[in-house]
């Protein structure tokens, strides 16, 4: 498995530690899930935007075909 080193300020690291502890999770698990949620959200937003463009241009594309 590949690894990734991230750098945080002392304040950011403390916030991460507190949030993970509040959820009863390790900092690593909490950070991993947060990154994956951000990746998935970006993909979802891209897909929604692409779907919107396809719907909005469907008639034009039909006439150009």
From TrEMBL:
UniProt-recorded name of the protein: Arc-like DNA binding domain-containing protein
Biological process, per Gene Ontology: regulation of DNA-templated transcription
SUPFAM superfamilies according to UniProt: Ribbon-helix-helix
Organism: Streptomyces lucensis JCM 4490
InterPro entries (alphabetical): Ribbon_hlx_hlx (IPR010985)
Highest rank taxon of the organism: Bacteria
């Amino acid at each position: 498995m590949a690894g990734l080193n991230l750098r945080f300020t002392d304040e950011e690291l403390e916030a991460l530690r507190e949030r993970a502890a509040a959820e009863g999770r390790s900092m690593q698990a909490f950070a991993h899930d947060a990154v994956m949620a951000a990746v998935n959200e970006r993909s979802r937003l891209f897909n929604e935007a692409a779907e919107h463009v396809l719907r909005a241009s469907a008639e034009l594309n039909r006439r150009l075909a």
